[in-house]
Amino acid sequence: MLLEGIFSATTTPFYPDGRLYLRKLEHNIDRYSRTPVAGIVILGSTGEAVMLGDEESREVLRTAREAAAPEKVLLAGVARESLRETLRLAEFAADQQYDAVLVRTPNYYGPQMGSAEMLTYYRTLADHSPLPVVIYSIPRFTHYELPVELVAELAQHPNVIGIKDSSGSVEHVAQLVAATRTAPKRTLSVTTVFTAVTTRMILDQPVSASTFIPVDILGTDAAAVAIAPPKPAIKTRTKEVGFQVLSGSPDKILPSLEAGATGAVLALGAFAPQVCQEVYTAWKDNDLKLAAEKQQRLVEATKIVGAKYGVPGIKHACDINGYYGGRPRIPLLPLNAEQQAEVANAIADVKH
Q1: Is the distance from CB of 38 to CB of 71 less than 8 angstroms?
Q2: Residue of 156, 161, 294, 321 with fewest CB within 10 Å of its CB?
Q3: Whether 322 contacts 31, CB under 8 Å
Q4: Closest to 86 (Cα-Cα) out of 63, 67, 104
Q5: Which one of the listed residues 32, 72, 121, 164 is annotated catalytic?
Q6: Can you tell me the distance from the alpha carbon of 352 to that of 339, in angstroms, rounded to the nearest whole number?
């Protein structure tokens, strides 16, 4: 699967009493589908994945997939502390036609999580996962950072296609890019403009290019039935792709791209996907001056909303920008009035 461009890391909406608010999830996913982002990540850190039970996770994955546009790449956060449970959720994501799974490093038994344990976990997962695996390293929350040489070793596996690096270090992104440069290349189907061809796009193809009308209908007095013309078949070409490194730092999109990242998975993409995409688009157009200006717009929002207030801040920013945010799940608490004002001020330049 091609992992290029900006991916919105979605929130999980809840009612005030903590129940899943699936109608609001549908609303948000529909809005992301109308933006130019490459894809959507469901049940990452921004989605409060660790707060959900297994059946709730399945409900969220199912609802998001049904609401998403076929051309958006869908990544499912399926990480559990055990390999067995992670695989069970990966299998469900495959049944729902997701394109890849995002799997953070297991961390509860941190002192025992050495290189041998991580290699075994990810290799066995990749051996059995029906979907391509994207490693997720977020040391801020897991208190564990995958060594670069370990990622390079995992990159040799044919079913490990990339990593989301949320270290916050452009230097670390550059090291990952350099260390995985010799990973096996994959030949992928892409559109004529070199964007991803998703599983759902393929399944959405017409069975036949012609419309069949039964002969017994012709020449009778039966009421005419309007038949929609068949959808045009997707025109594709191929592209050679190696191991793909995605940044998780909204304030470092541009330098990460310059360091070799193929894109970014961003919490700020939950409430400002268009603004995040503008950085990538300007860079893609080789307009580095414009890209730098667009990047600067995200610095204050990253500092206040993402780093200082985290999920509660992101959810309030969603409410301001027309997405449903609502309350986080306890023990996380919603922002008070003073904090809300600080967030509103921080995102004043990234409103749509």
Answers
A1: no
A2: 156
A3: yes
A4: 104
A5: 164
A6: 21
Give the pairing of strands 236-241 and 244-247.
unpaired
Closest-CA residue to 151 (of 129, 174, 128): 174
Q: Are 259 and 170 in contact (CB under 8 A)?
A: yes
In whole angstroms, how far apart are CA 38 and each of 27, 194, 196, 239? 18, 11, 8, 17
Q: Is 309 a catalytic residue?
A: no
pLDDT tens digit sequence for 186-202:
999 999 999 999 989 98
What is the reported pTM? 0.91
Catalytic site residue from 136, 280, 309, 323: 136
| 164 assigned to active site | yes
Which residues have CB under 8 Å from 82's CB, separation 6+?
A: 106
What separation in angstroms does the CA of 325 have from each of 52, 126, 151, 318?
16, 34, 34, 5
Kindly state the tokens that stand for 308: 């200082």
